[in-house]
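ok so i was messing around last nite and threw this chain in just to see what happens. nothing serious, just curious
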Amino acid sequence: MTRRRREPGRRPAPLRWAPALAMLLLAACSTPPSPAHVPAPVATSAPASPISAPPPSPAAADLTLAFAGDVHFTGRTAGLLKDPATAIGPMTQVLAGADLAVVNLESAVTTRGTPEPKEYHFRAPSTAYDALKAAGIDAVTIANNHALDYGRVGFADTLDAASATGMPVFGGGRNIDEAYKPLLLTVRGVHIALLAFSQIHTLADEWKAGPSTSGIAMAWDVQRAVAAVRTARTEADLVIVFNHWGTETVTCPNNDQKSFAKSLADAGADLIIGAHAHVLQGDGWLGRTYVAYGLGNFVWYVGQAETGVLRVQVHGRDAVSAELSPALVASNGQPKPVTGSAAGTQLKRFADLRRCTGLAATPSPT
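result:
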């Protein structure tokens, strides 16, 4: 897959043709045109309507997108970083096979800082980014309730390490504008905008980004989040939002999730992906917007849980199909593929989760 930065605007070329044009105009003024050469009237176009989206790509590309849930390297998963190339495990093949792969990095990337006043603290060395890149992951969201576990000192290290290792991050920044700014990537000629918001209450006021304060983008500021999606809609062909939300261990989305999803869909989000609840939550379509409420744990320090890589097929702006590659968090914290009849059983359970989401099994006609 090739990623390219959006080209900066070019300055206008010098007007080298201006003298020649002036001579032509003088000639036209001195010699009246014959009737056969009178210029035809110029048609007047209708007033331009406000731009709500960029010009479409020359051809609507078919892309395969891959998403997975929460990843960190703490406890039993810390040892996986001894060999970053194999840290994610056998699900790497599914991630690397996509045109774009994105996960939630549930950790501060730092060896410094002071633990914040909360129950759980996750952190990892900068080799965490190397492990993610080796697995074919192209970008990570840091809008979650562990990114600032070691304060703003640790968060600064998280941002610096991402830059140093070349791992694009989104959903957080050194100020509020940077936190809510979309990450723009170009994938096979398609301009993609990635945004992320946290809807977790814990330390939300303390961790939110400010005008001159680092932090993460919060879903509770619905007006700013919606404005960010609308802006992204003007800058990209495809707009993807990755939220950190939901009630822990509950497989049905709560009312805050549903309300926020509708606001994002109305603002122009094409895909809405989620994590945080530690369990899978249902997926489907909200009108034409594809929503996967929760992807659970993916690389996790404790317990065993159903997980997987969600593969979404996109044509232009439209998610036309989605399929979970089922997996189970194994004893070493890595996700391991589930096959055979066990895979069929897990996929049925995942499909049944749609019942409490209010989502449709197919997109609405556009």
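not much to say yet. The two ends are 29 Å apart (CA to CA).
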